[in-house]
Amino acid sequence: MPVQETASRGSFTFHDAWDFLVRRRWIVGGTLFLCWLAAWMLSLLMPSVYKSETTILIEQQKVPEEYVVANVTVDLQQRLEAMKQQILSRTRLQHIIEQYGLYRESYRKNPEETIEQMRKKDIDAHAVESPGKRGDFSAFVISYTAPSAKLAQQVNTELTSLFIDQNVAEQTERAENTTQFLSSELDQARQDLSDQEAKVKQFKVGANGQLPSQTEANVQILNGLQNRQQSLSQELNHAQEQKLYFESMIAQYRSAKVDADKGANSLPAIEDQIAKLRQELADDQTKYTPEHPDVLRLKRLIVRTERQRDEIKARLASSTPAEPSRASLDPATMTPMLQYQSQLKAVEQEVADTRRALQQVEAQIGSYQGRLNSAPIREQQLSDLTRDYDQSKANYDSLLKKQMQSQMATNLSRRQQGEQLRIIDAPSLPKKPISPDRVKLSFMGLLGGLVLGLGLAFATELMEDRVRTEDDITNIVKVRILAGVPHLFTPEEERQRRTRRIFECCCASAMLLVLVAANVYTALGR
């Protein structure tokens, strides 16, 4: 049955796929073998490329670093890039090409493009990480690719020699430049340090009393003034309460005549006032502590009001109903009023004195608060000046130390006792080419042949219109199949089938043998 009909009804099984592969085995197998053979032959025709490598180790200076510290500490990768720029210049590469006769045809036609190809594709120099130390580079590898192994080794040897010579020259030059630079920077740092010292001294004279070192003393004085302010405020409140009390008592004595005429009518009002004060005291005691100023004030008012009530009761008890006006004008009643008036004047004077003292304390508090408020600004200003001075001092000390160390390191480099490059792996003579990867090309040929063979087999299956199974007939003719007659082969047909199978097995074995032998030959690099 055609593949499209089987797929259309959604019953394409593994058995159908196997039958499909068996029917089209020669298309799939033949295409796979031919594609592989073409890829393998192409890999044999491609020119071989050999790669020679050498490893260069960076040896530390021979004098211990605790005595002499190197003044050139450029990262290995940066140093490698700098050396590559010098060594892989156009002039040097042109000299190498002419010396070893490289790229004869391409160099004659286009020298610039050939030099660029040599620099970017054929020469490689990269740093190597130390074993077990990620990010730590202590060596680098130089490699060169060429059409022959011997030529690759010769050119790589020349490149290695150039790298070592260039490193020695750069190390000495950088050491001398570092020493000269540090000397000039040291002179500038000395002048900056002198300027910063003058600025700090001038600032401390102008900001006397507001310096950060005086903040603690200012805080202590301010705390004492605030305590004094609180004490004066309490004294003022107490004096004002006394003033109110005396004024109240004087007013009551002045209205004594009216109270005597009215009899005991004023007594209920005082009782109501005492009840209200007690109720207010009870409310405040639920909210505040017994030492709270409002609680203490209410207690004092209650005591005074009760005293006033008792005095009124005493006056009413001593006077007779027939002589109310005489009792109200009794000198015994007027004498306490004069006492209250005298005490009122004394309290008013106390209130005035306390207010003046409180204003003076508040002015002093404002002055010290101003000092404390300006202290952060002064502290920041002094911190900036001090930081600049400390930086200048640290910079000067550091530069002085570095300049002395750099001078010793420069002398060490001139005597070639500093950091050196040592070849640990000489330029190798490659035994096998690195390109082309014939095994990979062979595998790609196999994969491409398989895909192409399956595609051709599927296309062939689509173009044929045959009925192969009962399901194919049922799908075309909507009738039931009652019986089927199997295909019967004649003896001659059986003999032809066996001969064809033997031939197919021989061909498949031959192709497999050729494929395996060729891949083994390629893998061994023969």
Report on this model:
Strand 2 (123-130) and strand 3 form a beta hairpin. 73% of the residues lie in helices and 7% in strands. The protein has 526 residues and is an alpha+beta fold. It contains 17 helices and four strands. It is elongated. Helix 5 (90-100) packs across helix 7, helix 8 packs antiparallel against helix 14 (331-414) and helix 11 (266-287) runs antiparallel to helix 12 (293-318). The chain has three domains: 3-46 and 437-523, no CATH class; 50-177 and 418-425, EIF_2_alpha (Alpha-Beta Plaits, 2-Layer Sandwich), CATH 3.30.70.1130; 214-399. Strands 2-3-1-4 form a four-stranded antiparallel β-sheet. Residues 1-10 and 320-333 have low confidence and may be disordered.
Helix content class:
over 70%
The strand line-up of the biggest sheet is 2-3-1-4
Structural class: alpha+beta
The whole-number mean of residue pLDDT values reads: 76
Major beta sheet summary: 4 strands, antiparallel
Q: With helices defined by DSSP (H or I, 4 residues minimum), what is the helix count?
A: 17
Number of strands: 4
User: What Rg is obtained from the alpha carbons, in whole angstroms?
Assistant: 57 Å
Number of domains: 3
The fraction of residues in strands falls at 5-15%
Order of helices and strands: HHHEHHHHEEHHHHHHHEHHH
> How would you describe the shape?
elongated
Distance between the termini: 49 Å
- The residue ranges in which pLDDT falls below 50 over 5 or more consecutive positions are 1-10, 320-333
